[in-house]
Structure formats: structure tokens, C-alpha cells
Amino acid sequence: MNRGLFITFEGIDGCGKTTQIELLREFLDSKGIANTVIREPGGTEVGEKIRQLLLDKKNSDMTSLTELLLFEAARAQIVEEKIKPALDDGICVICDRFYDSSLAYQGVARGMGTDIVKMLNNVAVAGVDPDITFFLDISVEESIARRKSRGDESDRIESAGDSFIEKVRQGYLYAALYDSNRIRTIDATGSVDSISSQIISIISERL
Ligand SMILES: Nc1ncnc2c1ncn2[C@@H]1O[C@H](COP(=O)(O)OP(=O)(O)OP(=O)(O)O)[C@@H](O)[C@H]1O
Ligand SMILES: [Mg+2]
H helices of the chain, where? Predict the structure, then answer.
């Protein structure tokens, strides 16, 4: 049996990850390709508890290193418990955020540096790296407009402000630059359907 394809979606809040994942899932289902969608840092019992710690506004004294280690802890759990077994069974895994989020948020935006984050990413995933990553790129202005129209209440991380979100975007652009084989940058300001067509055509080549 072939190993399943491991696909991740990245980008700042409101860039369209969840929308595009749903469309990709429908496409895979229509082709009879077994798949599962996973959201970081949750998706396991342990991971969901870590996620609550990360998003709780009461934890305003959480240090950047604690935040990074908590994300990596949740990642290690989800890789071992869910992602690796699914891929080994030939199931295509789609992850809503994965280790490039740590690089962009903690490494670049929080200023921890990309070296430490790459190292911890590698420890957490133990060789289970994504085959392909879609970085859905929109401007910070577009992100804010979309989230407003969705009526979101911001959580602890999202309430960090516009300049923080711009740094996150720069972090993703950096990641896409150093790992251009794996990370495909998609201009995500276009229509939902045109973005979905681009993603499906790239995935079709890999199936
Ligand atoms: N290409 C698009 N053009 C315009 N609006 C879009 C597009 N894609 C998604 N949207 C809308 O933008 C909002 C955010 O989309 P979505 O929830 O898919 O983003 P997300 O990346 O999953 O966000 P988050 O990081 O907050 O989970 C939704 O209201 C969605 O309908
Ligand atoms: Mg989403």
C-alpha cells in the first residue's frame, strides 16, 4: 500500500484555510480517496487540553518559550497518535495549520528565531514532514475585513494586533522562500473557486 499524501494549509487568520480544506476534501471524496482532516494544535484529547491553555486570555503571562513548547507538545502527540498511523494506512491527511505556523508565529512574529523553531519542529514530527503545503497569502487588511464580516471574537493570539499579523505573514513568506519545493504560495485574494481549482490541479499531479 502507498503511504497517504500529507497536505498542510497555512496562512494568517481568515486567509481561507478552512474553506479550501473543505473543498479539497469534497474533491478527494469524489475520487474515492480516503482522507482525514486534522486541526492543529487539537485533534487529540491531550492536544485539545493544550489548545485551551494556548487560547485562554487569562494566560497573559505565558512566555514565548512556553507557548512554543506547548505547540510542539501538541504536535508530537498528534503526529504519533493520528497523522503517522493514517499515512501508514494509505490515508491522505489534511492538516489545518502545521509546523510552519510555529515558524511564522513563534519564530518570526514573536522573535524567537527560526533556528530554534526548526529544531523543535523536527524533534516534534520525527520525520513525518508534509509532502505539500499550501500557503494562502492575503494582506493583513484583507484578513481583518474577512474576520469582521465573519463576526469573530478574537482569542489571545489573534488579539495581538495588526503589526503582529504582518510579521506572521512575513514569517510565512520567509518559510516559502527557504522551502520552495514543499510550500506552494497561492494568491488567496482571488475567488474561492479559482483558488480551489489551483489547489486541486496541484494535488491531482501528486496522486
Ligand atoms: N477567496 C475568498 N474570497 C473572499 N472571502 C473568502 C475567501 N475565502 C474565504 N473567504 C471568507 O473569509 C472568511 C475566512 O475564511 P476561512 O474561515 O476559510 O479562513 P481560515 O484561514 O480558516 O481562518 P482562521 O485562521 O481564522 O481559521 C470566511 O467568512 C470565508 O467565507
Ligand atoms: Mg479556519
Answer: 17-30, 45-55, 64-78, 84-88, 99-102, 114-125, 140-150, 162-178, 192-206
